[in-house]
Amino acid sequence: MDDAKLAAIVEVVVKELLATGAIAAPATSATPPVIEPPVVATATLTSGPALTIDLPDPTTPERRYAPGVRQPADPDGLRALIAATTARIGVGRTGPRYTTASLLLFQADHAITQDALYRDVDPRLLSELGLFSVETRITGGKQEYLLRPDLGRQLSDEAKRLIRERCAKNPAVQLVVGDGLSAAAIEANLRQILPVIKQGVQAAGLSFGTPFFVKHCRVGVMNDIGELLQPEVLILLIGERPGLGRADSMSAYMAYRPKPGDTDADRDVICNIFEGGGTNPLEAGAFVVQLAQKMRRHQASGVKLKLAT
Ligand code: B12
Q1: Of 170, 172, 201, 222, which sees the most CB atoms within 10 A?
Q2: pLDDT tens, per residue, the chain with 309 residues
Q3: DSSP string of the chain, one letter each residue
Q4: Which of 269, 270, 273, 303, when mutated, tests ligand 1's pocket best, judged by the most ligand atoms within 8 Å of its CB?
Q5: Spacing, Cα 141 to ligand 1 middle (Å)
Q6: Which atom number of ligand 1 is nearest to the Cα of residue 302?
Q7: Are the C-beta atoms of 268 and 200 separated by less than 8 Å?
Q8: How many A from CA of 264 to the centre of ligand 1?
Q9: Separation of CA 73 and ligand 1 centre (Å)
C-alpha cells in the first residue's frame, strides 16, 4: 500500500473517531495538555493539524504505580498500599474490565519479557570480563532452546573440546555463566557479582577455575561441566525465567562435585539476585562464597547438605 492510500485511510478513521468523541482533537490553543506524550510517530492528515498517535511509556515508575482507582475513599492510603508492593493493585477498572492503561502496561511488560528471552547476552560484556563462549547441543536458536530443555543440558562436542583445552582442571571453585532464560539478567548483574566471587574465593585461599560462558544454557549442564573439569564446587550464574516486567533477576545454582546423573536435589540455588528489591549482586556474591565454603566443609550440596547441617 502506498503512502497516499495509507494517509487517506488514517484521515477517514481519525475523522470518524473525532466525530464520535472517541478521541479529542489536538490542542490548537496555547493551553498545554496535562501530560505531554513523547512525539515518536505522527500521522499527517491531508488537511488539518498533525495528530500524535504514539503513547507515553507506561512502564516508567510514575505511570506504573499511578493509582488507577477513580475517586478512592482514602487516596493517601491507596498510594501507601501501592508503594508497599510490586504487585498490580489499585489499578482501577472500567465496569468489569481492565482499564486501557492496565492493558497497555501488560502488553509493554510482556514485550520486556520477550526481549529478555529472545535476545543474546552482549558479547562485549563477555569479552570485557574475559569469558570465552561455548554452546550446548542447541543448534536451532531460541525456539529450539525453549522447546528442547534436554539439549540445553548437554555441552556440544566443540564446547567440550574448548573447555578441555582452555580451563584449569580440578579447581576448588569453578564459575560458569549461562544465558538461561534472560540475557538481561546477566547483563544487569554479572559485572558486579563476578569480581566479588572471584576475590572471595581467592581470599579464602582456594583455587578459582577458568570462568567461561555457555550459550543456550540450562541448569542441568552443570553435570557435563562437572565431569569435564572435576571442580569441588561448581557455581552456575544463570538468567531466571522473567516475570512480567521483571527481566533482570539472576540465580546462582551450586553443586558439590557435580556429575552425570545428578538432579536438582543435589543442587542449591540462591535466587532473585538483582538490584532494587532482590538480593543485591554484591551481597549475593559474598553469600555464594560462604555457601561454597560450607559445601566444601561438608563435602555435600542440595538435600545432602541440608541433612548434614
Ligand atoms: C521454573 C521453576 C520451577 C519449575 C522447573 C521446571 C523446569 N523444567 O523449568 C518447577 C515448577 C518444576 C519447580 C519446582 C521447584 N521449585 Co522452582 N522455580 C522455578 C522458577 C519460577 C524459575 C527457575 C528458572 O528460571 N531457572 C533458570 C532456568 C534457565 O533453569 P532450567 O534449567 O530451565 O530449569 C531448572 C531450574 O529451574 C531448576 N529449579 C527450579 N526450581 C528449583 C529449586 C531448587 C531448590 C533447585 C536446586 C533447582 C530448581 O529446575 C529446572 C530443571 O533442572 C524459580 C523462580 C526464580 N525466581 O528463579 C523457582 C524457584 C527456583 N523454585 C523454588 C523451589 C523451592 C522449588 C521446589 C523445591 C518447590 C517444591 N517445594 O517442590 C521445586 C524443586 C524442583 C526441582 N527441580 O527439584 C524456589 C527456590 C528457593 C530456594 N532458594 O531454595 C524458587 C526461587 C521459587 C521461590 N521464590 O520460592 N520450579
Answers
A1: 222
A2: 566 666 676 676 667 666 656 556 654 444 433 333 333 344 444 556 676 667 888 888 888 889 999 999 999 999 999 999 878 899 999 999 999 999 999 999 998 888 888 999 999 999 999 999 999 999 999 999 999 999 999 999 999 999 999 999 999 999 999 999 999 999 999 999 999 999 999 999 999 999 999 999 999 999 999 999 999 999 999 999 988 777 899 999 999 999 999 999 999 999 999 998 899 999 999 999 999 999 999 999 999 999 998
A3: --HHHHHHHHHHHHHHHHHHTSSPPPP-SSPPPSS------EE--SSS--EE-----TTSHHHHTS---SS-S-HHHHHHHHHT-SS--S---BTTB--HHHHHHHHHHHHHHHHHHHSPPPHHHHHHTT-EEEEBS--SHHHHHHH-HHHHTSB-HHHHHHHHHHSPSS-SEEEEEE-TT-HHHHHHHHHHHHHHHHHHHHHTT--B---EEEES--GGGHHHHHHHH--SEEEEEEEPPPBTTB---EEEEEEES--TT--GGGEEEEEEE-TTTSB-HHHHHHHHHHHHHHHHHHT--HHHHHHH-
A4: 269
A5: 23
A6: 47
A7: no
A8: 9
A9: 41
What integer pLDDT is reported at residue 21 of this predicted model? 60
Report all structural domains of the chain as residue ranges with CATH numbers, in order of start: 3-52 (no CATH), 61-117 (1.10.30.40), 120-308 (3.40.50.11240)
What atom in ligand 1 is closest to the CA of residue 182?
29
Mutate which of 254, 271, 279 for ligand 1 pocket (most atoms within 8 A of beta carbon): 271
The gap between the terminal CA atoms of the chain, to the nearest Å, is 70
